[in-house]
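User: Structure please.
Assistant: Input sequence and predicted structure:
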Amino acid sequence: MLVGRRHPVDSGPQVRCPRPRSAVHALAAAALGVAAILGLLPLPPAAPRGVTACGVERWPVKILADPAAKDVDLHPVSSTVATLRQMPVPPVDRTTPRLPVERKTYTVRARLLRAKLEPDADYHLVLADPGDPQQTMIAEIPAPECAYGSRVRGEIARARREYDRRFGRPSRTRYAGVRGRPVVDVTGVLFVDVLHHQNGVAPNGVELHPVLDIR
């Protein structure tokens, strides 16, 4: 027996109820996850065990994963902590793209004063000019797990291993002095950070970040 097709009853204009915001976010997250699995989008970096999260502020610039990273000259120029501290640099904020000065790599000979494993998994190193321990600047070695998409991920991993081999893993809880305050040659890409009272920061915010080699 054939059953007649039902026709909708006209009950006036219909109002669509919006999905709850949490449901929308969940659907969006699921869609991004599927896209990442299919290779349409890169998977986000996974923080190393025991670390809250990888970095956020200007993070692609810090690890050379930004669009301008291809323009960075990785052939290091010899310099000093004192010289880099005096380098004129423009002001930056947390969304500033790569600056022209951040397209160069430097090697400095410095005294390694202290270090700390930061919550974002970076090794935060405080370097001092060998002739004046009051003149300091920062160098940072990211965790390779947090350097997703970096053109220098291999160099970062080697620098991290070399630091661990020579000096051991830094403290998570404090800026601990490095035994003997050794003089080291540190190579890294210049980075200008936002000033926020960092330990050992240069007055212009200049850092070597990421560190590519330490000897």
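Helices lie at 21-37, 59-62, 81-85, 153-167.
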